[in-house]
Design brief:
104 residues; two-stranded antiparallel sheet; 12% strand; 4Fe-4S; transport; iron-sulfur; 4 iron, 4 sulfur cluster binding; RnfB_subfamily
Amino acid sequence: MPYVVTAPCDGCKYTDCVTVCPCECFREGETMLYIDPELCIDCEACVPECPVEAIYPDHAVPAEWEHFVKLNAEMSRKTPPILTKKSPLIGPTGESSAGEDQSQ
């Protein structure tokens, strides 16, 4: 039962989860992170670290986000590993790290 990154991460891309992952299963896409289901050991360490509550076990993904299970598997093969924390796309005020308002 691997974990899955879902819709709340898209456009935010907080990377707090990356630093606690013991198996380096996170992958970095342009606007969000993905979890490689082949590497995830189901330790759940990433779940409490996600400030937007975007990470779920694959069997508990909300129905409207079920397509993220397949998307994580596909994108984890196409995106590079991310091993260190980076600035999010959106800061705590709703502004992107580039200064553009992403809240709309």
